[in-house]
Design a protein that fits this description.
By secondary structure, this protein is an all-alpha fold. Helices cover 74% and strands 3% of the residues.
Length: 286
């Protein structure tokens, strides 16, 4: 590549780099800078405290609870979505009757905005007139108002909302598998379970890892659906890092400690991203 071609490449990439710097890097650096201050707008308090907010964060039991809630939510919801998404993708790719209707129906949850979907599910889980509450055997349980139940109700909503994304991603990967492999397996007399374990799943592994990366990052920063359902309650048992950050920033007006929570959330997501990309890189080398 000549020097002129390199210069042309840099010039074409410059607008995108400038946009990324403006909308991503600058706000991130500003948040990190604010985290070094005690800044409470209501009390007109604005003073530099250095790493004091981070020392407070290390001993903040509410932060560690929110981190645990977030990690539990992400692990359980993403695991369920991968299993259900694979089942739905196999149904979409099969010759079963009604698969055309299923392909259309699977898009409905994904098309509904998360806040709207959360509100619909909040009505379904209503302890007085909710359809789910009235039809389930435990009809006297307040699913969104009882610790232990609320987080799992939120997981159900997230799985309902985002499983179609995983299913469509895996379905696209299924369609890329050469038909010759299945014909050869059929000629050799391989059973359906043998074909699934020896051909389909191994060739789907890269797509599964991509779905795992994307959904893990999205689940770890979940906010809207849980906030609409429970606003982090009851007793902060569904409070995630994003909700805790929002409450500190907008509810309490503590922009210094809220920025510290935002930085901590960013670092957690960065760690999840690095781990996920490492898994993808290992798979690619293999």
């Amino acid at each position: 590549m000549t020097r002129r071609e390199s210069l042309a490449g840099y010039l074409m990439a410059a607008p995108s780099a400038a946009l990324l710097f403006t909308v991503a890097l600058v706000p991130s650096l500003a948040t990190a800078w604010l985290s070094l201050f005690r800044l409470i707008v209501v009390f007109h308090e604005h003073r530099f405290v250095g790493l004091s907010n981070y020392r407070t964060l290390a001993g903040d039991a509410r932060f560690w609870t929110a981190l645990g809630n977030t990690a539990y939510f992400a692990v359980v919801s993403v695991g369920c979505e991968l299993v259900l998404g694979l089942v739905i993708a196999l149904l979409l790719d099969s010759r079963a009757a009604g698969r055309g209707l299923l392909r259309a129906a699977v898009l409905v949850p994904w098309a509904i905005p998360a806040a709207v979907g959360g509100k619909i599910w909040a009505w379904l889980f209503n302890p007085e007139y909710g359809f789910i509450t009235r039809t389930l055997p435990l009809h006297d349980v307040n699913w969104l108002g009882t610790p232990g139940y609320a987080i799992h109700a939120a997981i159900v909503v997230d799985v309902w909302k985002t499983t179609p994304f995983v299913a469509l991603l895996l379905f696209a990967a299924l369609r890329s598998i050469p038909e010759d492999l299945y014909r050869a397996a059929s000629i050799d007399g391989a059973s359906a379970s043998r074909v699934l374990g020896s051909i389909t799943l191994p060739l789907l592994r890269p797509a599964v890892l991509v779905a795992l990366v994307l959904r893990s990052l999205d689940a770890f920063r979940v906010f809207d659906s849980i906030y609409v359902l429970t606003a982090g309650g009851p007793a902060n048992t569904t409070e995630t890092l994003s909700i805790y950050t929002y409450k500190t920033l907008m509810g309490e007006g503590d922009f210094g400690y809220g920025s510290t929570l935002a930085v901590a959330t960013f670092l957690c997501v960065l760690a999840v991203s690095a781990l996920s990309l490492r898994l993808v890189g290992t798979e690619a080398r293999a």
